[in-house]
Amino acid sequence: MRTLLAVPVLVVCLAVPGLWAQSPGAADAGAATGTAAPAAASGAGSADQGAASDENDFFGSAAVEAPQGAAEKTGVAESVENEHVGLSGQLQATSTYSVGRTYLQGSGNLADNSFANVVGGDFLVDMRLQKGFKAFLDLNIGYVPGGTPTTHDFIVSSPISLAGPIVASENVATALLVKEVFIDFNVANTVYFRAGKQVLKWGTGYFWNPSDLINIEHRSFTNLNALLDGVFGLRTDVVFAPWWHLYTFTNLNEVTGSNVWDTAFAARSEFLAGSTEFAVSSWLKSGKVPVFGGDVSTPLPLDWWAKDGKTLNLTAEGTISYGDIQDKFDPVTGPYAVTNRFVPKLDVGLSRSFDVLNVSDRLMVQVEFFYNGDGYDQDMFGLLASNPMKLAAFTSGFFQSGYYGQYYAAAFVTVSDFGTTNMTLSLSGIANLSDSSGTALAGFSWSPVNNFTLALQLGSYLGPVEREYTFSGSSLLAILTATVNF
User: Fold this and answer.
1) What is the DSSP string of 345-381?
2) Which of 127, 130, 113 is nearest to 77 (CA)?
3) Residues near 363 by Cβ (< 8 Å), separated by ≥ 6?
4) Residue 11: which region, alpha, beta or left (left: phi > 0; alpha: psi -120 to 50)?
5) How far apart are the first and last CA of the chain?
6) Most exposed among 29, 213, 215, 323, judged by the fewest C-beta atoms under 10 Å?
7) Directed axis angle between helix 2-22 and helix 24-33, to 10°?
8) How many C-beta neighbours within 10 Å does residue 464 have?
9) pLDDT of 168-194, one tens digit each?
10) How many other CB atoms are there within 10 angstroms of residue 381's CB atom?
11) Angle at the Cα of 73 from the Cα atoms of 68 and 76, rounded to 5 degrees
12) Residues 56-78: what's their mean pLDDT?
């Protein structure tokens, strides 16, 4: 009862002086007499009185108080339109140690293990021009101590060149890659364009995006936050209404010389209805079967999940095509095209955050399931193990991790403020349910100061030998990464 009475009394005590100070009479009287705000109530100690008097003198002094309107920012539109160039990015040093399965079993030796160091950085240049025009560059630099084996074809001016190019090998220590470089512009702030090499973020899946038929690179399970390599083309964004956007992309990445028929075209129409977002998309290219897709993102109306104000979120996306745009590899006959049958692909994910020990959103849990209608239903690595040439051809041109089998599942758990406010625990796992192999990771990241993170990941490749996640021969791995953002 006393608590209930104290609340209105406190409100009155806080509100009355404020109302008095805002009244014209009080303001004029204070300005006319030049008096400061009332001193602290009597009965307080001398030190408290001095502190209160100094504070009141400070906030009540005419020399400190700004005239009305003086603190208002003028020319906001002009300042936003000012041209400027911004530089940001990250530097990262990574050391990886892999332990071979045969070494753990006692049948191998220390040579079955491997240690690798990589130092790299992404330098992001953001050039803002007037009227919404912008240019962007992501320049990636990687350095591998000792280099990595790389082959090159050379043609020299000598009789030996008549036999064809000379293949030479060398160790390349430094690699330079332009991941993104594009220019943004618009027409009447209604139709927006992006021309150049870029990464598109279409679809709702967290790890798998079957409707993403544009990007040439997908997320890495061991480095989910890595910046991806883009594709060259022209993107448009038309805003019909706040609830309806239309995106198109003309993919020019594979166009060489005068062969304009290698141009691909994709379109995506995105809608918003309440708290539900959904979209339909399509992909077209000459000589390829068309692909049609859709995706949705929505909170599920389950009251028992939303008692703390949080909801269980559902994401789903999928595609359907009569045939597949990617060729497959047969262990006997080699490459072949998939035709005359429907190929569905579907990704479904659930995610939710939880408050733990009075910390909001301390725990985040995500689970995801992926069905690849054109995945391999046989152990290609086991079938090709006896033929190194075919195995190399398969892994270099027809294999992509996470999109090889038919059925996949993944889970991601993140615990922030783990022990201390600047430490995070992450647990993740991915499994190819078709061949019973997978990868499990446990990670710790520590940020002692702003923009610096030290992370350690410990993982294991699980399952029988010669499967998707075990064909490399490694069983355990440790990844130590130091990252500086600027």
Assistant:
1) EEEEEEEEEEEETTEEEEEEEEEEEEEETT---S-HH
2) 130
3) 353, 354, 355, 356, 413, 414, 415, 416
4) alpha
5) 54
6) 29
7) 60
8) 11
9) 556 678 889 999 999 999 998 889 999
10) 22
11) 150
12) 44
Residue with tokens 């995070």: 424
The answer as to CATH 3.30.1330.200 being correct for domain 86-485 is: no
Residue ranges of the domains in the chain? 18-68, 86-485
- Residue 364 β-bridge partners: 353, 414
Q: In this predicted structure, what is the pLDDT of residue 14? A: 34
Distance CA 102, CA 473 (A): 8
pLDDT of 76 > 60? The answer is no
CA 186 to CA 133: how far, in whole Å? 7
Per the CB < 8 A criterion, the answer to whether 290 and 284 are in contact is: yes
Distance from C-alpha of 76 to C-alpha of 129, rounded to nearest angstrom: 16
**Spatial separation of the C-alpha atoms in residues 277 and 294, rounded to whole Å:** 11
Residue 77 has which token pair?
């539109």
Average pLDDT of the residues in 432-438:
96
Three-class secondary structure of residue 280 per DSSP: strand
**Number of DSSP helices (H) and strands (E) in the chain, helices first:** 7, 20
**What was the pLDDT predicted at 22?**
38
Largest CA distance in the chain: 106
In the prediction, which pLDDT does 67 show? Answer: 47
User: Residue 234: which residues within 8 A CB-CB, separation 6 or more?
Assistant: 193, 194, 195, 249, 250, 252
- The residue with greater pLDDT, 78 or 56, is 78
Report the C-alpha gap between 314 and 348 in whole angstroms. 7
Length of the chain: 486
Confidence label for 311 from pLDDT (cuts 50, 70 and 90): confident
Tokens matching residue 28: 């004029």
Instruction: Report CA torsion sign: 103, 107, 110, 114.
Output: negative
Q: Please give the average per-residue pLDDT across 290-303, as a whole number.
A: 90
Rounded Cα distance, 199 and 146, in Å: 31
